[in-house]
Amino acid sequence: MWTFRAMNTNIAVAAPELDEDSERALALRVERLFARTEERFSRFSPTSELAELNRTEGPIVVSDEMLSLLVRARAHATETGGIFEPAVGGTLPVLGYDRSFAPGALDREDDALASAPGSIRMLEIDEERRRVTRPPCVQIDFGGFLKGLTVDRAASLTTARVMVDAGGDAVVHGAGWEVDIEDPHDAARTLGTVSVRDQAVATSAANRRHWRRGTQVMHHLIDPRTGAPAQTDVVQATVFAPTAERADVMAKVAFVLGADAAARALEQRRLAAVLVLRGGAIRTVGAVELRHA
Amino acid sequence: MTTERRQPWLRMTPLELRSYLVALLAAVYTIAWRAIGGTTPVTESTAAVKREPRTVWVDSPARVFQPAPAQPVVRAPIQRAPRVRTRSS
């Protein structure tokens, strides 16, 4: 297994059937893929294509890849009734998340101002001409959706049995893989383990990226209906799906909706999940067999 | 009768003394020139360069402006079966 840092997290690549040189070569290709993707689409880099889109007033011609990302993200937003919303990029800086996360780095004494979030569905996208017009209230942040998509693309670089894990957003191709789910109340503990094959997994929780703004504790999972950090009975949502892109989107949706609505939404889409509720109870949804640690 | 012994520098001839003073003045002038700078007239192009320096050194640029260091791909400790550990990140 090979590891490197990208997108502010640890990335692991393992292809146990490959010899050491081939596995390392694969890891290097994955590393370059992550680096290129981060360089072009990070909202924290002022030279990224995404930053240019976010500051351009009026129509702008975007790259094919940017167009593809916008169209895909908009499709997820529509499909989830706006609960998945990559245009909360304008809300997060207002709440204090205005730089790459590090514990304590975002804490401030002043209170956050209320903000009305925009929606990616407010973008005018001319797919034929690759021309995008952004209303001023819309600030795009691809966030975990982009990480999930990059994990999917990384795993498709080989036909061998492979695992690509980007800080909990992971894809496994082949059989015989184990997924340990972290305990959100104690990161050193494992809640339980799930055996998977040809599947992806993603987890959303507020235990790692949170900060203080005045008297309030903020986190990065915004409810687009309120423009504020989501407050529900779900403490952590782990979703299993065919792709990491889908798993990441639905993990956020499950966290924001709360346990009952999340269970309905996941069952409708035939997805499996492990939800950790306030108070520590665990609720499984769909075909998932959790072996407790 | 007293015998007065002259200091060595006082024993210099007027010609030697003049040479000594010329050398001293030349050294002082050279040091002053270097310290204060030349008096070459500033041309338009050099003035432009002085107004807008092409290179600006900043001790601690904001993080977003710092070049991302190359992250090495490193081999993790060998495990019998690599596992995924899923968590929010």
Could you please describe the fold and organization of this structure?
Chain A is α+β, with helices and mostly antiparallel strands and 293 residues long. Chain A contains seven helices and 18 strands. Chain A has helices at residues 20-41, 49-55, 64-79, 91-95, 143-155, 244-257, 259-268; strands spanning 2-6, 9-14, 60-61, 124-126, 131-133, 162-166, 169-173, 177-183, 186-196, 199-205, 210-213, 216-219, 222-223, 228-229, 234-241, 272-277, 282-285, 291-292. In chain A, strands 1-2-6-7-10-15-16-17 form an eight-stranded antiparallel sheet, covered by helices on one side. In chain A, strands 3-5-4 form a three-stranded antiparallel sheet, with helices on one face. The longest helix of chain A has 22 residues, at 20-41. The mean pLDDT of chain A is 89. With 89 residues, chain B is mainly alpha-helical. Chain B is 35% helix and 6% strand. Chain B has two helices and two strands, in the order H-H-E-E. Chain B has helices spanning 14-36, 44-51; strands spanning 74-75, 84-86. The longest helix of chain B is centred in the N-terminal third of the chain and has 23 residues, at 14-36. The N and C termini of chain B lie far apart (103 Å). The chains are: A alpha+beta (293), B mainly alpha (89). Chains A and B meet through strand 1, strand 2, helix 1, strand 6 and strand 7 of A and strand 1 and strand 2 of B. Strand 8 of chain A pairs parallel with strand 2 of chain B.
